[in-house]
Design a protein that fits this description.
It comes from Chryseobacterium takakiae. InterPro entries: Cyt_c-like_dom (IPR009056), Cyt_c-like_dom_sf (IPR036909), Multihaem_cyt_sf (IPR036280). Keywords: Heme, Iron, Membrane, Metal-binding, Signal, Transmembrane, Transmembrane helix. Pfam families: Cytochrom_C. With 455 residues, this protein is mainly alpha-helical. The protein folds into four domains: 124 residues, Cytochrome c-like domain (Cytochrome Bc1 Complex, Chain D, domain 2, Orthogonal Bundle), CATH 1.10.760.10; 37 residues; 78 residues, no CATH class; 97 residues, no CATH class. The chain contains 22 helices and two strands. It has a two-stranded antiparallel sheet with strand order 1-2. The longest helix is centred in the middle third of the chain and has 52 residues.
Length: 455
């Protein structure tokens, strides 16, 4: 009896040791919460837990490596810290992985300690369950409420319609009665007076022709002003914001993600026009960002499925296969709707304003708008793009609007371009334009010459 109990106790101890050993093997000796932070900071550019991106899916990678290749964590430490060095050493599996994934070289992470890697592997082995989406519960509640409210809404509508019909009938009856009362109360004297009243417009005009002519003159002036005002606003589309074939939110990209304007609009600084970026520019990021995970910001009426669908449109346009992680060669053109478009007879050069006038324009705008300051020159003309979900025309873009800017924007003579270009004219201009302590505005250097903008 005693020997049986001893054997039973030894069995329990062995099982406990086996469980603790297996837990250690499969990455449970790390901190999954810290691993999640490290994974998002270092790995999400190329990896996901549940699907292949640029690199393989990493969920259960420790167990998979142990089962399929007989390799443990030591191999993973070497691979993550410096996979290039591991491949150069002749490691067979390291070179197989490199070949399998199109010879895409993985970034090295010498800064990660063994403890950091343990935490990451613990996260890939046992990722925490995502919190239930609040939006779904809210939608269910709203749908249930709307279903219950539907019969009540229908009943209320019927009551309102019946009430309106009753009121209309009552008003008609009152009008008929009033008409009868007027006829009954009309005396013979009143009837005679009605016969002497003016009964035609001609008689009224002959009696009050001076007043009539004055009113006609006033109406003519108002009509002329209306026509002139209408003509002057032809081609002015302030507030114009068309729907685009692929939804693109500047608020998410330039605002939330702080992406610089010139990363996408690269020709705005050194070119005449600010080009629409090619879809390959989008793919620089969206090759690895295949779904929308910014649950903290979603526009009203839009959900994750909507944003994911727009990313798929980018893939369709560029011919990208997210499963195989390669281009198919089957591309589709994207017909963007242009928003800002100068007439053919107007010359405008982005480079001249962004390079030579950048700081001057920013300073002038902030001086005139102390409560609405800007940090980049683009916003002076295009508005605060980083707050727009749908881009719209923020200003008039009329000739008068441009001239007013040229008359009030002070030239930055310390700018390297201006300092060299106006070297001989600098002192002369100071004497010629002594206003505001010798400050020189754009109109003083030819900003109002017709040939500057019309050629």
């Amino acid at each position: 009896m005693i020997s049986w109990r001893k054997h039973y106790r030894q069995t329990l101890i062995a099982i406990g040791l086996l469980l603790s050993t297996s837990a250690s093997i499969y990455g449970q000796d790390g901190d999954p919460k810290n691993g999640e932070k490290l994974f998002k900071a270092n790995c999400t550019a190329c990896h996901a837990l549940d699907k292949q991106v640029i690199g393989p899916a990493l969920k259960g990678v420790v167990a998979r490596l142990e089962t399929e290749q007989g390799l443990g964590k030591d191999w993973l430490y070497k691979w993550i810290k410096n996979n290039k060095e591991l491949r150069a050493s002749g490691d067979k599996y390291a070179n197989e992985v490199f070949e399998k994934f199109n010879k895409t070289e993985m970034q090295v992470f010498p800064n990660l300690t063994d403890k950091d890697i343990d935490d990451i592997l613990a996260y890939t082995t046992n990722p925490p369950e995502p919190a239930p989406a609040k939006t779904d519960a809210a939608k269910d509640t709203a749908n249930a409420g709307s279903a219950n409210a539907a019969p009540q809404s229908s009943t209320t509508t019927n009551v309102v319609i019946i009430s309106l019909l009753a009121i209309a009938g009552l008003l008609v009856w009152i009008l008929l009665k009033l008409r009868q009362l007027v006829k009954l109360g009309q005396s013979e004297d009143l009837a005679g007076l009605n016969e002497t009243r003016v009964k035609s417009f001609r008689e009224i005009y002959e009696k009050y022709h001076y007043i009539g002519k004055g009113l006609i003159a006033i109406l003519a002036l108002l009509a002329a002003y209306g026509v002139w005002n209408w003509i002057m606003w032809i081609g002015v589309y302030k507030g114009y914001k068309p729907e685009q074939p692929i939804y693109f939110s500047h608020k998410i990209h330039a605002g939330e993600q702080k992406i610089d304007c010139q990363l996408c609009h690269s020709s705005a600084k050194y070119g005449k026009v600010s080009e629409i970026p090619s879809m390959n520019v989008c793919m620089n990021c969206h090759r690895t960002i295949s779904e929308y995970n910014a649950e903290h910001y979603m526009e009203p009426g839009k959900d994750k499925a909507f944003y994911d669908g727009e990313i798929k449109k980018i893939y369709a346009a560029t011919g990208w296969d997210p499963e195989k992680q390669q281009y198919t060669g089957k591309t589709q053109p994207v017909e963007w709707t242009r928003i800002h478009n100068m007439p053919d007879f107007v010359y405008f050069n982005h480079a001249q304003h962004v390079v030579a006038g950048e700081q001057a324009i920013i300073n002038s705008f902030n001086k005139k708008n102390p409560n609405n300051k800007i940090d980049v020159v683009c916003k002076a003309c295009h508005g605060k793009i980083d707050t727009m979900n749908v881009v719209q025309m923020a200003n008039d873009f009329t000739m008068g609007w441009c001239i007013e800017c040229h008359r009030t924007t002070e030239v930055d003579m310390n700018n390297g371009y201006n300092k060299e270009y106006f070297k001989n004219l600098h002192d002369k201009l100071k004497k010629q334009y002594p206003k505001d302590g010798g400050k020189i505005t754009v109109d003083a250097i030819g900003g109002l010459e017709c040939g500057k903008c019309h050629y």
